[in-house]
Amino acid sequence: MSSVISTASNRRVLAGLIGSAIQQSLTPALHMEEGTAQGLDYRYELLDLDRINGGVAALPSLLASAQERGLAGLNITHPCKQIILPMLDSLSDDAKALGAVNTVVFSEGRRIGHNTDWWGFAESFKLGLQGAALERVVQLGAGGAGAAVAYAMLKLGAQRLDIYDIDATKMRALVALLSELFPSRQVAAVTDLRVAMASADGLVHATTTGMAKNPGLPLPADMLRASQWVVEIIYFPLQTQLLKTARSIGCRTLDGGGMAIYQAVGAFRLFTGIAPDAQRMAQHFDSLARRPAAIAAAE
């Protein structure tokens, strides 16, 4: 049963986010602020696996409880984007192609998985790095978020995508998937990151290195060149060590804020059936991300 009640105004919408280390997420505020602006009674809750007995093992019961309590849907983040798949009734075409879900909609007793990550990343890239060279791109990370951004890069026109992950099995699986989806492009597993970076136009970073609780650089700084662009999907903090280092070298950079905003735009539309104001959500995100409390929490 969906919690979205079809009244003319002030209808109630319940939604939430499941994942690990999500207490500082800006997603709840983004959804609720836009819900208020749209005349909705919008509530959004956090289901933090770090604070729930059983951790990831509790995912099936959390999913069932959310559905029973009448939530319109859930956003799904690390480490659940792939392990949730067997718990769903159906997948959107994009989620099926990617094998990763970041949004679940409850509708007529069914659980439908979607992926708004790839579209959110693509929108952010188009707005923030217009004219970026896409002949050869290196991506770090082959997890659930990594699958989405790799898919987006190929949709955006990357001619060759070199993927590196310390988990070789996961890396090869993603390369095989993308090679099948995009047979006219070159997708390869990286065995020597330094060699791959030497000829790359740009770098996409899709691992957890650089997050507030996992600071540091995901690769040696001397692998970067001023002629390259560097994109980050982490948004907490907005300015990771990778972005700071890349800018100091002279690289064009793009932070993870845009992806966070536009994936939320897509999820809001799925949860409510209403097209949100993306510009308003972006302005709200910017105001939240620049608040002293948010900056201090990221340090």
How does this structure look, described?
The protein is an alpha/beta fold and 299 residues long. It has two domains: 142 residues, Leucine Dehydrogenase, chain A, domain 1 (Rossmann fold, 3-Layer(aba) Sandwich), CATH 3.40.50; 138 residues, Rossmann fold (3-Layer(aba) Sandwich). Helix content is 39%, strand content 19%. The protein contains eleven helices and twelve strands. The strands form two sheets. A six-stranded mixed sheet has the order 2-1-3-5-6-4, with helices on both faces. Strands 9-8-7-10-11-12 form a six-stranded parallel sheet, sandwiched between helices. Strand 7, helix 5 and strand 8 form a beta-alpha-beta unit. The radius of gyration is 19 Å and the shape is globular. It comes from Steroidobacter flavus.
Tell me the radius of gyration: 19 Å
- CATH-wise, what's the superfamily of the largest domain? Leucine Dehydrogenase, chain A, domain 1
**What is the CATH third-level topology name of the largest domain?**
Rossmann fold
Largest sheet features:
6 strands, mixed
Known CATH architecture of the largest domain: 3-Layer(aba) Sandwich
